[in-house]
């Protein structure tokens, strides 16, 4: 059933790009079939790629061999479709391309697909073991695709912002000498030096200090970090962090630079404006109000000092604490 992908097949657009301004254009699209609707003399196929979905249309004016291929198409088939963009008779306001469709006059099935172990959409409940086993299918779901694309946009925005502010991106080695930090190191045995090991970096701490001494006064890196520690909600064995270092600055310079980065990312990636400067808390304020040096300030129930109310209440646990110089909160 599969056909050869030849050099005449050249994609002109991604599926999620089409709008009413494209009506009348001859186009070629490639992707995965997300849904097939057979209405007898009409067949509609939702074609998906990483940008979104566009509807392919086949009707009584379609060549018989093309119509037969569409009839045989099932979900997750990889196909190439060529045709003309036209207005849809039934508008779908739920998707950006919902005003148009492609009337197909050339169609190839590049790769047929077996029935997938779970449905490829966001409204499903799948066990983690199954979704991770078939991660390549799970990542086709629109929400996960958008997560990957957003991460790309954030990385792009980070580089743009820091480049524009005079930072130099420098890669630091992955295999290093072990240095004492907060967690255990992951070790890599050396083939050349028998009995010796490299450590994977928990962060590029030593290297960025060397770079400052060397005169690279503004350094930036999207650094891969490896930490052998017990898992927590905000920790995993490997992760990426935006690592930077600045020379000839004070505390306010660093906070102002990174506030600007937060505002830039929100505007560039989400289209949201953030007013600056951001609220700032001293360590003491944070601990007194939230009991944490990294508080979630969205949580409204702050810690309240009630020492004055209970110092003469007669309950020894409270009054005794206040009298001894402590507090009741």
Describe the structure.
It is built from nine helices and ten strands. It is of the alpha+beta class. Helix 4 packs across helix 6. The termini are far apart.
What is the topological layout?
Elements: E1 26-38, E2 43-49, E3 52-58, H1 64-72, E4 78-87, E5 100-111, H2 128-133, H3 135-138, H4 142-164, E6 168-169, E7 187-189, E8 197-199, H5 205-214, E9 218-226, E10 238-246, H6 251-270, H7 283-290, H8 307-310, H9 316-323
Parallel strand pairs: 3-5, 6-9
Antiparallel strand pairs: 1-2, 1-4, 2-3, 4-5, 7-8, 9-10
Helix pairs in contact: 4-6
Order of helices and strands: EEEHEEHHHEEEHEEHHHH
Query: Major sheet, described briefly?
Result: 5 strands, mixed, barrel
C-alpha Rg (nearest Å)? 29 Å
User: Uncertain runs with pLDDT below 50, 5 residues or more?
Assistant: none
Structural class: alpha+beta
Give me some keywords for this one.
single chain, 329 residues, alpha+beta, five-stranded mixed β-barrel, 9 helices, 23% strand, elongated
Concise account of the structure shown:
By secondary structure, the protein is α+β, with helices and mostly antiparallel strands. The protein has 9 helices and 10 strands.
């Amino acid at each position: 059933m599969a056909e050869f992908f030849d050099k005449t097949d050249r994609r002109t657009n991604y599926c999620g790009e089409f709008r009413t301004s494209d009506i009348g254009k001859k186009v070629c699209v490639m992707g995965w079939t997300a849904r097939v609707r057979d209405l007898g003399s009409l067949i509609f196929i939702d074609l998906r790629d990483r940008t979104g979905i566009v509807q392919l249309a086949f009707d009584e004016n379609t060549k018989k061999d093309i119509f037969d291929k569409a009839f045989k198409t099932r979900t997750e088939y990889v196909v190439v479709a060529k045709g003309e963009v036209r207005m849809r008779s039934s508008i779908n306001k739920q998707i950006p391309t919902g005003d148009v469709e492609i009337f197909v006059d050339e169609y190839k099935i590049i790769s047929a697909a077996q029935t997938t172990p779970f449905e490829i959409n966001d409204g499903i409940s799948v066990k983690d073991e199954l979704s991770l086993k078939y991660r390549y299918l799970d990542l086709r779901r629109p929400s996960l695709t958008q997560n990957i694309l957003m991460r790309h946009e954030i990385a792009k925005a980070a580089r743009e912002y820091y480049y524009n502010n005079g930072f130099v991106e420098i890669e630091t080695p992955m295999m290093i000498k072990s240095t004492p930090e907060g967690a255990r190191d992951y070790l890599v045995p050396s083939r050349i030096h028998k009995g010796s090991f490299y450590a994977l970096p928990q962060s590029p701490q030593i290297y960025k200090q060397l770079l400052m001494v060397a005169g690279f006064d503004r350094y930036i890196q999207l650094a891969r970090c490896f930490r052998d520690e017990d898992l927590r909600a905000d920790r995993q064995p490997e992760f990426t962090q935006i690592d930077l270092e600045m020379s000839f600055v004070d505390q306010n310079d660093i906070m102002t630079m990174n506030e600007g980065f937060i505002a830039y990312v929100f505007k560039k990636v989400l289209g949201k404006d953030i007013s600056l400067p951001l609220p700032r808390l001293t360590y003491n304020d944070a601990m007194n109000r939230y009991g944490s040096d990294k508080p979630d300030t969205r949580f409204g129930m702050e810690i309240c000092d009630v020492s004055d109310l209970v110092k003469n209440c007669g309950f020894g646990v409270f009054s005794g604490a206040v009298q001894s110089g402590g507090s009741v909160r």
